[in-house]
């Protein structure tokens, strides 16, 4: 399953739906993660908060290819994208295992293929390096075999890259 998580605006959702199986629009109209870990223990892969991100653990957890489109915020995801990623912690379990010679949480849905980040907005070379590190760490933690970051000069480049 190919999933696109974006913060571009509702007007982009229709175009993005043609390029994947599921689109998650990070519109900010949801609560941030409360850190209760109920999605790990009480009701696995399901958030107790009944908003638009109630099932996001399952959606992101089942994605073989996860594409994130985010505004650059000092070399990291925009706050609304970060909130969605925080709410997807239930895609793993509280148990631990080794991946990449490091301790990580056991994956609830197994390993995945591709983790791609497209970022837009002003970005320095240092911020790009930071974004690449963040994406690589997220990909390893979530069980993706490959990660990449693409800096967009213009959003018009995006459609041709989402094959």
Low-confidence runs: none
Compute the number of strand runs.
Answer: 7
Q: What's the average pLDDT?
A: 93
The CATH topology: Rossmann fold
Percentage of residues in DSSP E strands: 25-35%
Helix share of residues? 25-40%
CATH class: Alpha Beta
- Overall, the morphology is globular
Question: What does it look like?
Answer:
The protein has 163 residues and is an alpha/beta fold. It has one domain (2-161): Flavodoxin domain (Rossmann fold). It has helices at residues 10-17, 56-61, 79-87, 125-141, 158-161; strands at residues 2-6, 22-25, 65-71, 92-99, 102-107, 112-120, 144-151. The strands form two sheets. The protein has a five-stranded parallel β-sheet with strand order 2-1-3-6-7, sandwiched between helices. Strands 4-5 form a two-stranded antiparallel ribbon. Helix 1 (10-17) links the parallel strand 1 (2-6) and strand 2 (22-25).
Outline of the structure:
The protein contains 5 helices and 7 strands. It is α/β, with parallel strands linked by helices and 163 residues long. The strands form 2 sheets. Strands 2-1-3-6-7 form a 5-stranded parallel beta sheet, sandwiched between helices.
């Amino acid at each position: 399953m190919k999933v696109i998580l974006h913060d571009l605006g509702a007007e982009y959702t229709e175009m993005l739906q043609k390029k994947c199986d599921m689109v998650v629009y990070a519109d900010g109209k949801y609560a941030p993660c409360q850190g209760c870990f109920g999605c790990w223990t009480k009701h696995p892969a399901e958030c107790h908060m009944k908003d638009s991100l109630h099932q996001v653990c399952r959606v992101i957890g089942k994605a073989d290819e996860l594409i994130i489109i985010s505004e650059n915020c000092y070399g990291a995801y925009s706050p609304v994208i970060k909130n969605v990623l925080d709410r997807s912690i239930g895609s793993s379990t509280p148990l631990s295992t080794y991946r990449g010679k490091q301790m990580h949480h056991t994956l609830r849905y197994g390993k995945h293929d591709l983790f791609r980040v497209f970022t837009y907005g002003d970005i320095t070379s240092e911020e790009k390096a930071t974004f690449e590190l963040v994406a690589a760490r997220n990909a390893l933690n979530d069980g993706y075999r490959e990660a990449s970051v693409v800096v967009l000069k213009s959003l018009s480049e995006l459609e041709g890259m989402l094959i």
